Amino acid sequence: MATITQAPPAxxxxxxxxxxRVAARPAAWIVWGVVIFFFLNLLGVVAxxxxxxxxQRWFDTWLPDGYTTSWYGRAWDEFALMxxxxxxxxxxxxxxxxxxxxxxxxxxxLARRSFPGKRLIFLVFLLPILMPPITYGIPLATxxxxxxxxxxxxxxxxxxxxxxxxxxxxxxxxxxxxxxPRIESAARMCGAGLRTVFLRVLTPLLVPxxxxxxxxxxxxxxxxxxxxxxxxxxxxxxxxxALYYSMSASGIRAQQSVDAMAVxxxxxxxxxxxxxxxxxxxxxxxxxxxxxxxx
Amino acid sequence: xxxxxxxxxxxxxTGEVPERPARAVTLNVLDVAGNLQLTQAMIxxxxxxxPNVISRVTYSKAPAPELAxxxxxxxxxxxxxxxxxxxxxxxxxxxxxxxxxxxxLPKFQxxxxxxxxxxxxxxxxxxxxxxxxxxxxxxPSGPLLEYLPSRLSAPPTSADALLAWAKANPxxxxxxxxxxxxxxxxFLMGLPYILGDTNPxxxxxxxDKTWAFLKxxxxxxxxxxxxxxxxxxxxxxxxxxxxVSTTGWDINPRVLGTVPKEARIATIDGFHWVTDAHYAVMxxxxxxxxxxxxxxxxxxxxxxxxxxxAYDEGxxxxxxxxxxxxxxxxxxxSQDAIREFGRPEYDAxxxxxxxxxxxxxxxxxxxxxxxxxxxxxxxxxxx
Amino acid sequence: MSAFSQLRLDGVxxxxxxxxxxxxxxxxIEAGEFIALLGPSGCGKSTALNCLAGLLPLTRxxxxxxxxxxxxxxPERRGFGMVFQSYALFPHLTVRANIAxxxxxxxxxxxxxxxxxxxxxxxxxxxxxxxxxxxxxxGGQQQRVAIARAVVFEPSLxxxxxxxxxxxxxxxLEMRTEIRRLHQSLGLTxxxxxxxxxxxxxxxxxxxxxxxxxxxxxxxxxxxHTRPANWHVADFMGYRNLWRARVEQxxxxxxxxxxxxxxxxxxxxxxxxxxxxxxxxxxxEDIRVDGPGETGNxxxxxxxxxxxxxxxxxxxxxxxxxxLLHLRTEQRIAPGDQVEVAIDPQxxxxxxxxxxxxxxxxxxxxxxxxxxxx
Amino acid sequence: MSAFSQLRLDGVxxxxxxxxxxxxxxxxIEAGEFIALLGPSGCGKSTALNCLAGLLPLTRxxxxxxxxxxxxxxPERRGFGMVFQSYALFPHLTVRANIAxxxxxxxxxxxxxxxxxxxxxxxxxxxxxxxxxxxxxxGGQQQRVAIARAVVFEPSLxxxxxxxxxxxxxxxLEMRTEIRRLHQSLGLTxxxxxxxxxxxxxxxxxxxxxxxxxxxxxxxxxxxHTRPANWHVADFMGYRNLWRARVEQxxxxxxxxxxxxxxxxxxxxxxxxxxxxxxxxxxxEDIRVDGPGETGNxxxxxxxxxxxxxxxxxxxxxxxxxxLLHLRTEQRIAPGDQVEVAIDPQxxxxxxxxxxxxxxxxxxxxxxxxxxxx
Amino acid sequence: xxxxxxxxxxxHWQHRLAERGVDRQLWLLVPxxxxxxxxxxxxxxxxxxxxxQPTNGGPFSDYARFFSDAYERGTIWITLxxxxxxxxxxxxxAVPIAYxxxxxxxxxxxxxxxxxxxxxxxxxxxAQGLLNFLGPTGWFNRILLATNLVDEPVRLIHNxxxxxxxxxxxxxxxxxxxxxxxxxxxDPTLERAAATLGADWRRRFTRITLPLLMPGLAxxxxxxxxxxxxxxxxxxxxxxxxxxxRVISLAAYQAAYEQYDYPYASAIAMIMGFVELVIIALVLxxxxxxxxxxxxxxx
Lengths: 295, 383, 374, 374, 299
Ligand SMILES: Nc1ncnc2c1ncn2[C@@H]1O[C@H](COP(=O)(O)OP(=O)(O)OP(=O)(O)O)[C@@H](O)[C@H]1O
Ligand SMILES: Nc1ncnc2c1ncn2[C@@H]1O[C@H](COP(=O)(O)OP(=O)(O)OP(=O)(O)O)[C@@H](O)[C@H]1O
Ligand SMILES: NCCCCNCCCN
Ligand SMILES: [Mg+2]
Ligand SMILES: [Mg+2]
Prior knowledge:
The complex is a heteropentamer, with one copy of chain A, one copy of chain B, two copies of chain C and one copy of chain E.
Chain B: H1 6-9, E1 25-31, H2 36-49, E2 54-61, H3 65-76, E3 84-87, H4 89-98, H5 120-129, E4 134-142, E5 144-147, H6 159-168, E6 173-174, H7 182-195, H8 208-218, H9 228-237, E7 242-245, H10 247-256, E8 264-266, E9 273-281, H11 288-301, H12 304-307, E10 319-320, H13 332-341, H14 345-352, E11 355-356, H15 361-376, H16 378-382
Parallel strand pairs in B: 1-2, 1-3, 6-7, 9-11
Antiparallel strand pairs in B: 3-9, 4-9, 4-10, 5-7, 5-8
Chain C: E1 6-16, E2 19-30, E3 34-38, H1 45-53, E4 60-65, E5 68-69, E6 81-83, H2 95-105, H3 110-123, H4 139-151, E7 158-161, H5 169-186, E8 190-194, H6 197-203, E9 206-211, E10 214-219, H7 221-226, H8 231-236, E11 241-251, E12 254-259, E13 262-269, E14 277-282, E15 287-288, E16 298-309, E17 312-319, E18 324-329, E19 338-343, E20 349-352, H9 367-373
Helix pairs in contact in C: 2-3, 2-4, 3-4, 4-5
Chain E: H1 13-19, H2 30-51, H3 61-68, H4 70-101, H5 108-134, H6 139-146, H7 160-184, H8 188-196, H9 201-229, H10 233-237, H11 248-257, H12 262-287
Helix pairs in contact in E: 2-12, 4-7, 4-9, 5-7, 7-9, 8-9, 9-12, 11-12
Bound molecules: adenosine-5'-triphosphate (ATP) (2 copies), spermidine and magnesium ion (2 copies).
Spermidine sits at the interface of chains B and A.
């Protein structure tokens, strides 16, 4: 029989831990070094835009000559940013809502059921994600213009739905697969019909997945340049497109006011991101991951 | 937030255009030339003075290349909601070729009395537009060279000298890709005059010297930025010591502070101004009420008091398209800016050098295409 | 509670792809009965249960509740309750809401829902946990929630698919008693799926043994235990000793067989004739180690492996002829010991070894036979 | 095969965050021994095994292989084989490649790898499956691959973490015998983790019972079975009857206690004094139903629930004082029967009920005690 | 009346339909199907037919035009020259980093959060930032000059590298998160098992983790390659759109919106899609040579 011989501190702490960490160091250093280098440069990229947007004049020096906030006012007025931001939000909300409404039920069927032609349908849903946006964007814009659906918000929304719906399907599928089908069976055995199962059981359980997928679609839509660019009319530009125009449209524009606009764009994205990360783990933004135990 | 367009509301688009609209219209203005910088104040003033003609105005901007596609699509869908387009020569011409614009002349000549007062080169620019566009602002443009005296004391003054300087100072001379840059295209179109090419209006057959010159010059050019802004930035930060410019690009960036105030300009011996203008056009398919409103607006914009606003902060220096518009009648802010950043020598330069209209759109696109392939794209193969 | 007096499965069959998972299941369930579906993994137990629940469409056959055909009803309209293997509790609902779910679906008055939910909570003794989420419960507690959820709306039939297989040994034993108690106190008609013969024996009024989708035997626990219908069922019911043999002589139910050199006396199970191939089935606890038996069924063997099992020892022994014996004894034996073993002829069952009785005899169906032959 | 004569765990401890998962494990393993680590879920069994394997760094303590300290070695240099609960077969490698993996890592000659792999394949009887991927095998087959992979390079120690818990009852029984056979034929030193007392009893030479990270008892299966060190171990070892009691009188190892109105005579386990709170532990099979016992430990009770278990019946009975009894008997009894039960005093173990012996006495640790009290 | 034979009557027709997987639930698929047909397949085939109806010449003349013109044809190579290395770098760099981070550790959430940021920056902002940061007088060059690593600013924008960096900034985090999730999908006990079998970390990685990760890497490569291959704004903004970064999407765009030649633009778009699908098909074919079944780690 084991008896407790000594109080815990009397035992020597094991040496294993420290030794093995030291051994792992060189590889870790390189990896962390690369990561830090990447982040430093990223920081530089973002910060140089931020600093410049507040710079009065910035020629061949480390920092601007003076600081001002006037570029924001200029950018705001010149590109009617209020309207652009409103449009951006409207488009995003519409795209997110519609793609969830269309995508989640389809994802459910594709995740749960097998039926003739399923592989083909899956492939068709995959294509819009695999194809370069320009490839289908140009004919899509042409068709949408032909039906009078482009050049305004409906066009932007429709075009953005093309990659978004498949995206919802793709991101939701693992979440749905994760739900034990027996839970649905259990609900039906309790007397719940299909609709009730969907509304009372599946939807609450899918909230994390729906959130993750909504956020992804939102971020992608706000950032989606090509399709919006091809289908937007003058009054249905989103922020990225306005930003692109500010960088490439004719006219003389102070660099700083473009920077200011970029900062506005980034801030909006960051706000979205911060909100998003309250609800989802960052890796979930790409795929559903189970955290493994620490050792 | 998008206004439901007037094009849709009042059905009649082809009938008689009344003197004034039956009901005040909402006007959507699309600017593809950066022209609102000069004219937005004029339009705003008109709207505030004539709320019974235009009740509300919205502005939007787009790059010129998309103009034709967009208008065409709206017309195809029978839902034109852009009442007024402000464009440069390129967008105007693209639309003319596709038959997008309502002919303003000669039908409405008498409503636009201001057109009789065009400056002479502005009148030439108006000629270039044919019947569709109404020139609203004008400037002689360039080509000019721009430099910082601290980095370059004696700028080259001839084509040969420019070449020699570029050779001696590799990577220090810059101009932007002509298709994306006013100064770039002005330089391109101005070179045949400077070099004495056989036919400055025929880039395909008449520009032998120009193409040869650009090719040789290209050997000392590091890269062609995709916009003028970039060249200005490089001038300011010292990467480039000599760049191509225009009157507007000379003054306005210095007002904005993106180029040091002390920057100077130089001209090449024997240069001709290649002039530039902005036009107002009406897409076909706009309701007659809106047409009436636009015509009233344009007439207003061509009055000397309004044209004075085109001095702006040197953005399109001088800017007014009609005669006898004095700087002193411009807004105070304009006067201050031009007094501080303008150049007294411009008056003499403008008076003392011939002016030429730019290439027509087709030739220009051909020239751009050739430049892209042989000069711009050529850089890759060499490097 | 039961809304019917009989539930009849009439030739219920189910194919998956080209394979029969369940073939022609005929079974009549009386109200109040506790029926266990038993069989090795993949034999079609869950398939049968899911067909009954309406979660799987049938390929052939029909299901009748008294005179009403119910196999065309969706599961939510059959009014059966079900307990799933991993419980399938709604993870986003509290224990209370989980249990009340079925009542809600039936749109009962609030007050009644509350009352009946509390009653069910009390029944499964979860009063202290009603406001917890399933994730905060132990396995046994979850199991009780699942049972409460399935019985609270007084279903005419409760189906359970291996409800205990996720629990550890100790808890499994406790929950088994719990289920038995609930069944007795509520008088529920129950169909219970398990692959654990001990569980089936201890719980059910009647057992249905399946093999490869076909019913092998239906009967009471005692029948199953003492008189398996064929050697496959015997194998499954714990007759670990299965030896190839040849029938030598028949005398009513008494039969003499020869198996690897031993002459053994046993009970004839089914239609034997002298000279046919047979399989002898004996439980380890029916092999006695206490010296030469008076009945003649005795052999001497050498103990090879001994496992301590508390009161008893489980051992493997080998006879001189190489036959491997699994036996259990309270005697103190050790590897290497020479022992005399005996088998009561009444406990030595002799089955026909041919295809007619429960399928073809393949060596991998008879691991012990195969082993002995090496 | 074993490259050492002794393996010594010296105060091995492991904390996770602020919590002790394993506290001061002292254990000496002799070459060739089969040791089972036993205990309820979360007691630290896997932690101990992983520390031994080198997969978890120790917080305190050291591990010695004869005179060599090995806890500082990474797992790949300890040379131990391990069978994981979920087998952890490499899904992209064939059975053959899985088994050969350890030999490859040791850079043995091709020919020897082939020979030893085939030998191991034969040992676990997977000749027909060598070219399949693990995904194509049944649970039992996978289990055998895992074992072959762990033993093929003749490790000095084989560690097994609940290798049978994923299998069904029948297969579990067969694989258990298989492991026992392998251990005996190869003479492997084995440390085996399980929460199944029956498994531990039947396999091990010595058992180590853990509770909340601390060793409760180390001993032979027989010691564990008949003389658990405290009532927690007893509970875990199948003493389903655990009753609160008060010590009345002591007479050497004989002790008289009072439990819900019954005066009972039993064995004193540990340091008892008159008047202290105690816990009485009795196995169900040690409660006899055959009338008043001569030893005086007899009670009359009413049978409440009966379960058929083949040879025996398992039953719950309640005494007049409300005490619930779990018992097993070969007698034919039925619910409602009045019976006299008796317990041999040697089989009635009396433990101290206080904190000193294996932790505080909380009602949820004593479900049966709690039940009786209602 | 025995066996699965025809003796007993077939079950009710509802059972038989349900058996085929056809039941009411399939309606849930309809909105998405209508959507994908109307907004993807129809425009796509419209574009395809349009590309065979050039303004002048036979049905294939626009394709012929593209391939006979070195300036146009070259865009394929230009695009691949940017997209393939960028996608490869993104995936390869992600592997060791994700490998280090697959366990749980303090700050993991922070690091992954930081990595999500560049995904949200979008190409346009990234371009603007690169112009500022990597420009001749940007901080990057200033640091190089100040530390005497170079005598003259390094040209990192308005050329191949500008576009390349832009693709790395936007693509790497995406690749990293994907690889991380694939890695976490591999049951960690497999590596522990390999350790107990005598494999050091190098061989655990090469023999166990990497082979199991390969299918995930192939998928990640495809997805990042798709992003890189359709590079458009950054090719204009930080690249040299007339020269070494005149990517194929730019050629398509110019044909459509500068020359108003929709058939030609469609032809280019189709060629673009085709080239991309060829690469993806090659990668996926290679992927199939690896084990692609369950790796046991996913929940
Ligand atoms: N959805 C399915 N598709 C194809 N075959 C299936 C399906 N479900 C079950 N089967 C097959 O039908 C047979 C019976 O399966 P079933 O699940 O009823 O077995 P079971 O007796 O419940 O086994 P277990 O004890 O392992 O749960 C098996 O051979 C199984 O492989
Ligand atoms: N990685 C970890 N991080 C934090 N706590 C842990 C970790 N691994 C184990 N523990 C804790 O240590 C204790 C012992 O765990 P261990 O896995 O050794 O239990 P076990 O006896 O193997 O249980 P089981 O029978 O359920 O496998 C438990 O309380 C557990 O929660
Ligand atoms: N597409 C029209 C180009 C006109 C460019 N204007 C820029 C203003 C120069 N000062
Ligand atoms: Mg089953
Ligand atoms: Mg464990």
